[in-house]
Q: What sequence folds into this?
């Protein structure tokens, strides 16, 4: 490559360079069943945002497990309306 | 920025930043910690639990499976402060799980490379653990129902006697899918959390009458016993993804469980007067007959061969 950067390991294997694309993690947190959360995350400003919702211990088949609704308004991420405890992972690209 | 480091890629996107946390390769898990017994009917199903240790922060799992095999992460559980279980539903195969996490989980004796710290002194990037590089990303929508049309054939109404038989299996096997065009590497791995849930059920009823007296024009004169049965057969599904080729991601439903619930009752009578009865019930009951959590889910794709 004629510009950019490359990072090698001790064996000379290329680990990461400026042709790579990635999603970076901004934060992760939990939202309780039947709870809600709204927070300002300045790092997502101007970037593509991907928010993963993972149920922590969903029931097998004996209970309705409703996912939380997630909305992003500017730099505010709001999570509410779900019946299960969840992890929220906020990733950005750009 | 007033301190720290920001590195951009060729597309002018931030790929290293002291204000963010890169994800780093922690482990490749090829053997589940535990697995349910699974089954091959209903399109196939097997639930695996993979365990990752020495990970003080939440793991971000990527799944690699062979072409046309179905998988989705259905739960992540914190076992203790550094151990996590990752639950993966499949259509009865064993995928590989590549685990990534932020730099706090990196453990390496290598003294080459680059470490970037953020303002609180925590590592944001550490090249000693292979940083996550992705190939592509897209939003995935599930089909509105696992099976279309859903018109099951006749099943035994008595005591769930046909639970799991050929008709139950065939007529509840998912047959819908939704394709998204996306360029995939030769050995793709997918970050996809399964939230979609669906249940399909059908009830069958039967009744019989025993007359110990005289039957006149269909009416029993004397002692009579009436029996009635209802069996509700069902299957429960979770959303998963697969890839039929390296230019398509497919979303579909994979059977998570199936079972049946039955009810039985008797009513006795003599000369038109009720003399008592009884009822009983058994089997498992599903939560409801509906499809939920159909909001689109992000699917991030990486090249698994880079972390082998």
A:
């Amino acid at each position: 490559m004629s510009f950019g950067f490359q990072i090698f390991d001790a064996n000379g294997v290329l680990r990461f360079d400026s042709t790579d694309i990635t999603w970076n993690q901004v934060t992760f947190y939990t939202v309780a069943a039947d709870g809600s959360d709204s927070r300002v995350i300045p790092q997502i400003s101007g970037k593509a945002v991907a928010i993963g919702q993972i149920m922590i211990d969903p029931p097998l088949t004996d209970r309705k497990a409703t996912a939380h609704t997630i909305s992003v308004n500017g730099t505010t991420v709001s999570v509410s309306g779900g019946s299960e405890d969840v992890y929220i992972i906020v990733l950005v690209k750009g | 920025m007033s301190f720290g480091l920001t590195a951009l890629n060729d597309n002018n996107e931030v790929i290293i930043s002291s204000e963010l946390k890169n994800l780093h390769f922690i482990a490749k898990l090829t053997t589940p910690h535990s697995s349910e017994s699974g089954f091959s009917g209903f399109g196939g199903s097997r639930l695996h639990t993979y365990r990752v240790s020495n990970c003080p922060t939440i793991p971000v799992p990527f799944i690699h499976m062979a072409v046309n095999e179905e998988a989705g992460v259905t739960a992540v559980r914190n076992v203790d402060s550094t151990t996590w279980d990752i639950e993966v539903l499949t259509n009865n195969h064993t995928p590989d799980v590549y685990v990534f996490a932020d730099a706090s989980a990196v453990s390496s004796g290598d003294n080459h490379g680059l470490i970037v710290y953020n303002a609180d002194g925590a590592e944001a990037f550490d090249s000693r653990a292979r940083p996550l590089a992705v190939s592509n990303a897209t939003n995935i929508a599930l089909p509105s129902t696992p099976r279309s049309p859903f018109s099951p054939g006749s099943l035994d109404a008595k005591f769930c006697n046909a639970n799991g038989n050929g008709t139950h299996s065939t007529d509840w096997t998912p047959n819908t899918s939704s394709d998204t065009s996306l360029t995939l590497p030769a050995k793709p791995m997918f970050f996809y959390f399964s939230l979609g849930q669906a249940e399909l059920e059908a009830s069958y009823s039967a009744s019989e009458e025993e007359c110990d007296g005289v039957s006149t024009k269909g009416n029993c004169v004397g002692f009579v016993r009436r029996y009635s049965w209802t069996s509700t057969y069902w299957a429960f599904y979770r959303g998963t993804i697969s890839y039929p080729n390296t230019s398509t991601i497919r979303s579909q439903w994979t059977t998570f469980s199936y079972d049946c619930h039955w009810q039985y009752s008797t009513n006795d009578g003599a000369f038109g007067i009720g003399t008592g009865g009884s009822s009983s019930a058994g089997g498992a009951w599903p939560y409801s007959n509906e499809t939920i959590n159909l909001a689109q889910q992000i699917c991030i794709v990486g090249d698994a061969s880079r972390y082998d």
Q: What stands out?
A: The longest strand of chain A covers residues 24-31.
